[in-house]
């Protein structure tokens, strides 16, 4: 069997490599090059091709002079920080609850994971209805069960929308992250907890000294997935607010750049996309490098 895999591994891998190069690598390289040109989507301003319309770093200079991009960057950083903490904590708490259950844990796992199966647009429209109708009129409005003004009209204020986006992504992602934490908890030897009990350690001490250190490999995966997904959030932002009331995240800002400029400046949008990629790559690499150092040998 091993000889069979060695013989057919490269031929079977080749179609996937060709597809990856053709769909991902080559368009990415072309996009980076176009970010240095006056690309207008259907033509190149000032020349017949990208070489003749080459503008150097002008597009990148415009990016950092664009107040909308800077506002979207700050808004995205705030949202990502809040969402990463909230999703990680919620996923860990749910995983701890599931690990305690002896019966019906599979049913709860399925229920908690199901929101992750919804598409971004569908999820955004569902929560738009919840925030506008259920929250604003039925629960927390003037005639609702509890009058809490902050929880009303949450899609019409940038601060409230920040909280609304966090609530939405926690509901969507926490179940997926829970499964990763559950797998990590199941790999922790019960002997460690028994030894800690003999030494007189309480539940909190076991959690802090055993569970958290042994779950660092799971934290590495969870933090990376949450960071990357929150930075790239687009569909939910479109469906929930469409970027109105200064609620654009970076992905939506890049998408709307071609509508904000006349004629549509695709070169500027592509420069924003390259900066976006570099930002995600740097943050992701720093996070993975840091959490890897904290991991404990199983």
UniProtKB/TrEMBL annotation:
Q: Which organism is it from?
A: Robinsoniella peoriensis
Q: What is the name attached to this protein's record?
A: sn-glycerol-3-phosphate transport system permease protein UgpA
Q: How does it sit in the membrane?
A: Multi-pass membrane protein
Family of the protein in this entry: Belongs to the binding-protein-dependent transport system permease family.
Question: Which segments constitute the ABC transmembrane type-1 domain?
Answer: 73-287
Q: Which InterPro entries would you find in this protein's record? A: MetI-like, MetI-like_sf, UgpAE/MalFG_permease
Q: What is the name of the gene encoding this protein?
A: ugpA_5
Q: Which UniProt keywords apply?
A: Cell membrane, Membrane, Transmembrane, Transmembrane helix, Transport
Compartment annotation: Cell membrane
Tell me one GO biological process term. transmembrane transport
Upper taxonomic lineage: Bacteria, Bacillati, Bacillota, Clostridia, Lachnospirales
Any Gene Ontology CC annotation: plasma membrane
SUPFAM superfamilies per UniProt: MetI-like
Q: Chief subcellular site?
A: membrane
Q: Locate the transmembrane regions by residue number.
A: 12-36, 79-101, 113-135, 162-185, 214-234, 269-290
């Amino acid at each position: 069997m091993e000889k069979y895999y060695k013989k057919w591994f490269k031929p079977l891998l080749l179609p996937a490599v060709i597809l990856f190069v053709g769909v991902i690598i080559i368009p990415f390289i072309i996009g980076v090059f176009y970010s240095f040109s006056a690309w207008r989507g259907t033509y190149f301003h000032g020349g017949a091709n990208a070489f003749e319309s080459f503008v150097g770093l002008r597009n990148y200079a415009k990016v950092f002079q664009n107040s909308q991009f800077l506002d979207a960057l700050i808004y995205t950083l705030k949202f990502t920080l809040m969402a990463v903490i909230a999703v990680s904590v919620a996923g860990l708490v749910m995983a701890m609850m599931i690990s305690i259950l002896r019966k019906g844990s599979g049913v709860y796992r399925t229920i908690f994971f199901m929101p992750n199966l919804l598409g971004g647009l569908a999820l955004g429209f569902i929560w738009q209805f919840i925030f506008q109708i259920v929250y604003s009129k039925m629960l927390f409005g003037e005639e609702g069960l509890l009058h809490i003004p902050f929880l009303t009209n949450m899609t019409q204020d940038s601060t409230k929308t920040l909280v609304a986006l966090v609530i939405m992504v926690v509901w969507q992602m926490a179940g997926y992250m829970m499964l990763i934490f559950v797998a990590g908890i199941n790999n922790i030897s019960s002997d460690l907890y028994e030894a800690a009990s003999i030494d007189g350690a309480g539940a909190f001490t076991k959690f802090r000294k055993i569970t958290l250190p042994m779950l660092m490999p799971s934290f590495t995966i969870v933090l990376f997935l949450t960071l990357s997904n929150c930075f790239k959030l687009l569909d939910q932002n479109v469906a929930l607010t469409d970027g109105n009331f200064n609620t654009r995240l970076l992905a939506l800002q890049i998408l709307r750049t071609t509508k904000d400029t006349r004629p549509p400046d695709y070169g500027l949008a592509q420069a924003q996309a390259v900066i976006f990629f570099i930002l995600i790559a740097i943050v992701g690499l720093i996070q993975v490098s840091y959490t890897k150092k904290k991991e404990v040998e199983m």
